[in-house]
Structures are given as structure tokens and as C-alpha cells.
Amino acid sequence: MEVITLLRVLAMHFPKQLVKLRKEQGYTQQTLAEAVGLHVNQIKKYELGTAQPTLGALIKVAKVLHVSLDALVFEEGERGPEDELKLQFEAVSHMPPEDKQAIKTLLDGMIIKQRARHMFEGIGG
Fold it and tell me: Can you tell me the distance from the alpha carbon of 98 to that of 13, in angstroms, rounded to the nearest whole number?
């Protein structure tokens, strides 16, 4: 993901995700700031969307809130496979290791094919 796109995602989703997760876990802005090791004004700025956290700050906040960076930055369902694929991946997770490896190899091949197609379309078009 390019840097400009990441900054847009942070600006759009991070403030409301931070407020939501902080409140769900019973933190005040002050107690979260103390747990993360930031000044409370910085947490306030993050929640208002007037400041963007560094990667280090994001990691600290995610650890304190016991969530992944994706959960902190993206809305639920914004990343990850569609529901149909989730069911298929769930089925694959119960297969023997050799079958899982065959499916991974097939997926890797399809991903490489798709990326190559996009590269050649960019060169030719």
C-alpha cells in the first residue's frame, strides 16, 4: 500500500476506531495515554483526526488494546476475504497438510499470474 493511501486510510478510519476500541475496553483518554506512554493531548489529537500516529505509536496502542494493527486502522470487513472465501479457507484449514500445501501452491501461482498480467498491462497500455 503506498504511503499516501495509508495516510488517507489513517485519516478516515483510525480516529473512530481508536475511540470505539478505547471505550469498549474501558479506557479513558488519560488511562490509555498512560498505558501507551503518550501525553493525553496526543490521544485527543488522534481521536479528533488532527494528528497521525507514527508506526511506533500505532504498535504501542494496538498492543495496549490487544488488537492487530488492521483492527486499529481498518473498519471491520474492510480487509480480508469475502464471506464465500472465508468459508472455503475454513474448509481448507481442516485438510491434511499436503492438501493445504497444494492449495497454497495453486494460490501462489494464481497471484503471480495476476500480478504479471497487471505489470504487462501497465507497460503496454
Answer: 39
d(CA 46, CA 40): 10
Instruction: Tell me the C-alpha distance between 117 and 124, whole Å.
Output: 10
How far apart CA 28 and CA 41 sit, in angstroms, is: 12
In the chain, domain spans: 3-73, 83-124
Closest CA to 75 of 1, 15, 7, 4: 15
- Where do we find the cell 504511503? 3
Report the predicted TM-score, pTM, of the whole model to 2 decimal places: 0.59
CB 73 within 8 A of CB 14: yes
CATH assignment, 3-73:
1.10.260.40
Residue 120: phi, psi to the nearest 5? -70, -35
pLDDT tens for residues 26-35? Answer: 999 999 999 9
